[in-house]
Design goal:
Chain lengths: 58, 157
Amino acid sequence: MDRMRYGFNYVYKPVLDDAEWRSFNSTAEYRQWCRDNLPEYLGYGELSDLQRQVLDEA
Amino acid sequence: MKRESFTPIQAQQVAGAFAKHQVDYMFIGKSGAILLGYPGTTQDVDVFPRKDIENGRRIVSALTELGFEIDSTLEAEIVRGKDFVQIKNGPFDIDLVFAPDGIENYDEAKARVDMSSGFPVANIRDIIESKRAAKRPRDAIELPLLRAFQRMYERKG
């Protein structure tokens, strides 16, 4: 139970956590906002060729 | 199917308030997978609610009870059912995903919902398809593990 409880952890994420809330007319619009605004290391950016291949094969 | 019981606190809180206010929804995303037993971590709760005005009003009531600060603008966005509403001003972060990638229809997803954890969780295949369709680098890291989890989960089922 504790393992699952701590499965939801929190660390500050630049930009993403800097608004109380945000909304988008479409999920695609949200994805684009993420690509345009979030630091690359958060993992919301463009796929590399290798990552695209991994997604296709998974 | 017998599985270890678990009660992630955010999920419990959401489930309790959403049940009280009769919200029609299911957990989705990585938080949903964790509820099914996937040994990962996540920083928010992802919810796939039915998109209709009355359900939106119920969500507002439930989130307010949980301690989220829902001003009139945000309330209107939720009731209207904007496709993606991300809220970070409450006791935990929650994403209301009214139109998840890779899932065409709420009713069809609801018919496949997994209640084995005691929570309404999207079918693991729907969770995986939504992540595949999102096409994010973070999902490319996670998806092979989720697929392996799915194979084990369905074998045990």
